[in-house]
Structures are given as C-alpha cells and as structure tokens.
Amino acid sequence: MSTFYVTTPIYYVNGEPHAGHAYTTIAADALARYHRLKGDEVFFLTGVDEHAVNVYNAAIEEGLSPQAYCDKMAPIFIKLWERLNISNDIFLRTTSDMHKRGAQKFLNVLHANGDIYKGAYKGYYCASCEEFITEKELTDEKICPIHKIPLQWLEEENYFFRLSKYQDRLLAHIHENPDFVYPEARRNELLNFLESGLQDVSISRASLSWGIPFPFDPEHIIYIWIEALSNYITALDYETEGERYHTFWPADVHMMAKDISRFHALLWPAMLMSANLPLPKQIVAHGWLTKDGEALSKTRGIFIDMDGDIVTYGIDAFRYYLLREFSFGNDGDYRPARLHARYNADLANDLGNLLNRVLGLVNKNFDGVPEPTTPGEFDDEIKQMAQATAAKLDEHIKAFAFDAALETIWEFIRRINRYVQQTQVWTLAKPETKPRMGTILYNSLEALRFISVLISPVIPETAEKIQEQIGLAEFDTVAEWGRLPVGLTVSKGEPIFPRVDTKKAQQPQPKAAAKPKQKQELKTTDLVSFADFQKLDLRLARVLAAEPVEGADRLLKLQVDLGTEKRQVVAGIAEHYTADALIGKQVIVVVNLEPATIRGVESQGMILAGSGDSVVLATLEKEMPLGTQVR
Ligand code: ME8
C-alpha cells in the first residue's frame, strides 16, 4: 500500500485562526481525503506553533502565563478544524513532550554533525515573522515589509547553523527535482535567492525564556523556526524512531502559503541534509487569500467574516468556494458575492436540482432504483465521460489545481443534467418506453453516486447526503461505473443546498454575542513552592502618564513611578480604562518580569488587575509610599 504524508504549517496561537488558515487546512484536507479514497495509507498533520515571541507577548497582553494562554488558544484551533470537517490524524502542539524531546534530539544531531557553532548577532528582527530582516529588505522606517510593524534591534551571542554549507547541495536538489518546489514562480524565486548566496542563521535566543532549551546549553532556547520545522518529524515520534516515523517520513507534501516557502524549501532541507535524513518530496505554496486586495493578518487585524458565511451557506459551500474559486498558486480576493453566486449556480442548481429531479422521477415511477435493461443513445458517452472525469481529476489533483479538478467534475454534472434533458426522460412513463425510462434514471443515479465519490474530498458531508438519498447504507468510495445496486429504496430528497436568497445573504451578519468569560477553576494541582512565589517582586507604583498604543485597540502604554525609578509598562486594559482615568492611580506592578516588546512597544513590567467579564486594577486599601513591596 502506498503511503501519503501531508502537512499544513503549524499555526501561531497569537490570535484566533482566520480564513487564510482555513484555506490551507481545507486544501490539505482535500488532498488527504483524496489519497484515502485512492487507498493510500494517509497521515495528515496540522497543529500549532506555541513557543513564539508573538505568542509570549499575546499572553502578557491577556495577563496569562504563556502556557495557560496556549492551553486556552489550542482548543480554538481544534474546534474550528472539527467544525470544518478536517480529517487530520494528529494535532501537534509544540508544547507537547513528544515534540520537545524530538526537537532536542534533532538539535543534538545537527550539533554532533558539526553544523552548529557559537557567534554574535546584531540586526533588526520582526517579532511576527520571527526572522531577522536582511540589509536588502530593510527600509529607512525600519518597518517589517509584511506585517508593517516596527522592527526590534537585537544584539546577542547566539548559536548559528551552517546554512551556507548547504547552498550547492540545495541548488543541485532544486535543479534535479523540478517538482520539489511548487508552483514554478516560487521555485524561480528560491533559485534567485539561493544564487545570491546563503548566510548562516542564528538559531538560539539567550534573552528569552519561552521556548525549548538547547540540550547542550540550557541558557539558550531554540530559535522558533528551527524548532517549528522539526515538528514534521517530531510528530511522527522521531525521538523514538518508531513505526510511524519509518512509515511516513519523508513527507509527500508540505503545504503552506508563499510567505513561508523559503523556510520550508531552504532551511528545513538543509537541516535534514545535516542530519542525513531524506528530504520531503514537495513544498507546495499557495497564494494569499485577500480582503479588498490585502492579505488577511492576525497582526494587522484584517479578517473575513468566515463565521457568518458558514452560518449562511454551510461548511461544504465554504470549502467548495475556497477550492473552486481561486487558482491555487495565485492570490485570490475573498468575495461573499462570489460565494453566493457559486452556491446558487454550482451547488443548488447544477448539483442539488439534478439530485432532486432524478429522485422525484424515480419516486413517481418506480419502486426504488430501477434496472438498466434498455441501453440507448448517450449511455456509452456518459459512462466513458465518468471514467475520463476520474482520470482528469487525478491529473489536476497531482498538480494541486483544485479549481480545475472541480470544474472537471462540474462539466460531468452539467452533462448529466443535459442527458436528462436530451432524453426527455419525464415523457417516457408509458408502458412501452418505461424500461428505457428506468435505464436513464439508473444511469443518472449511478452518475450521482459516481459524482459523490469524486466530490467527497472537497465536500464530504454533501457526498454522504447524496449517497444516503439514493439509498446506499454505507458510503461507497469506488469511482467505477455500474456499482449502484438495483432496487435500493431512494429517499424523497430533501434539498441538499436550499436556496439562500440574495436579500438574506446581503444582510450584514449579526456580530456573535460576546462570550462570557468562563470562571477559572481554582488550581489545586501545579502548585508552586513558597520560594518560587517569593521570586516575584511586586511593588506599589503611581501612573504618571498613559496613552493608547497605535494599532492596538486593547493596549495602553503607561509610565509608572516606583519611587526609586520610572518605568514604561504596556497593559491590555484599554477596553476598560481611558488613559486619563488612570493618571494618578496607585497600581501594583510585577517589576522583575522579563521585558517584552508588545506591538513594537517595550514593556518593563506588568500591572495586576482582576480579570473576569470586566477588568479592574488591583491596588492597596490605603495609599502607601511608592516602591512599597506587596506580598
Ligand atoms: O507562519 N492567505 O504561522 P502563521 C492564505 N508558525 N493563507 C494564509 C493567510 C492568507 N491570507 N494567512 C495565513 C507561521 N495563511 C509559522 C509556521 S511551520 C513549521 C511554522 C496560512 O500562523 C498559510 O498557510 O503565521 C500561511 O503559510 C500560514 O497560515 C502562516 O501561519
């Protein structure tokens, strides 16, 4: 049996997943389902990337520990994937022990093979890309070209990975394996980049504590990209090199958007070369899903109302629209009006009406699926077209052309509609033509069964509904003509895509009601020692000045006076306090927290507050001198 291992990126948990993440995950899901249909043994990975600086900062903004924040966010991704019918075999969290142990083992191997050394690094860093920006990309404003946020200047002693050593082997690999990077545009971009020369990359951070420690120097944590990329093998339990690892590595397809193809097509293969492991077979990068021409972004707050569209049109229509409308390698603008049009034309009209019409005729004239006793005009053509459609579909899926794949299936659907029309089957109920009528209806039902198999990777729920309605008790996954048993009782046929009228679709979606915050349970496990508690240095301070943080609705930048010194602190309280209302207040500050840069603004501490449905600042019952220690 062939195997097929497909992955999505593991997504940062610094915000909730949006339609861009859904797009990659649905495409990978369609691939995984397609390969299962073909009989391959499939392993489909998705998951979350938790040790990032942007995740740490988001946790601080919410006043949670990074781990507690990740524990809150990971289930949001899991729930969305369940809702979207994603058939992943694993949901990898990088805070899991399996991943941590695997990542450390991998680093040990690179070290043992002589590809890690110590050096000093200086440069501008984007906390959202988690990458140093090269001289070439740096603008005068020192703004990240992708996220449009201020870059941070970083200077520290780091470990480096000898990426430059692999330049020639990478070039050779990409030249010798034309399908390694898909599509061609990305491949050319990478070749250009490679030809301009690769530099070694810094792979450790000494200034951070949120991450996986270096196995041979616990003062440093592993740079997020090195750690994150290794997830593709740690998820197979690389640490113990068990059966799953031997069955599925190397991966068949790493899927992602073009933003991160360079990490996957250069850094990751070089790391694998260093470890003497086989390389993934294909790095597949799709374009950006945009809204009014701008890429969706958690960092920049550009979203699509995916939830509203799913409520109006259903999961399958949403999945169908994403894969049918956009050409995989190119950018595509998400337009609710196009989703509406495709829903009515392709799903409700072409497919839904065909099913209804055929079931109606069967119910009116026969007792279940009729026998195909009387071949006639068009029958052979239809049968041949069914097989040809399956073959073309295979070609398109191999080329990641989901739009062409669906168009091919829809040509067949429209052909069956024409067959019903051309044969005027509804006029054949007279005794002398009834056997022919039965044959045409059998062929139409068999075509619908055949279609349901072909569409099942993209719209699995619809595929099942179709087979249920034509009377099959169990889903038949085989795309071979003539498998539909005669005599099955067909259902009356509920519309599988009820019409959504234009007015309803155009109404603005009601905003989801704010979810009441869940009461946090008191923790009686994970106790901390008194000594640990004493490590916290809490001090009384007074707010001297406060102002909003540009581009962050929830944040305020405060200047506080601790008696002996003044500090700047960023607090996620702007929805509950105006800047003016804070000035002069006494507050309690955690003063020995690692500094963090939140939305480009440095925060040198954290303010304590009660946090539930609202947020209320903590203070002492009476005023005391600034700098007083709070215990
Ligand atoms: O980059 N259009 O995580 P991330 C299409 N943790 N796809 C989009 C998109 C858009 N507008 N926005 C996001 C990371 N995506 C790292 C990955 S992997 C070892 C580590 C999808 O949360 C797309 O797949 O920023 C893109 O590559 C990915 O989300 C980036 O997710």
The strand line-up of the biggest sheet is: 3-2-1-12-13-7
Mean pLDDT across every amino acid position: 91
Shape: elongated
Radius of gyration: 29 Å
Q: What is the CATH class designation of the largest domain?
A: Alpha Beta
User: What share of residues are in beta strands?
Assistant: 15-25%
| Distance N to C terminus | 64 Å
| Uncertain residue ranges | 509-518
Residue share in helix: 25-40%
At CATH level 3, the topology of the largest domain is Rossmann fold
Structural class: alpha+beta
Ligands (ions, cofactors included): ligand ME8
CATH superfamily of the largest domain: HUPs
User: What is the makeup of the main sheet?
Assistant: 6 strands, parallel
The number of E-state strands comes to 26
Q: Helical segment tally? A: 20
- Assigned CATH architecture of the largest domain: 3-Layer(aba) Sandwich
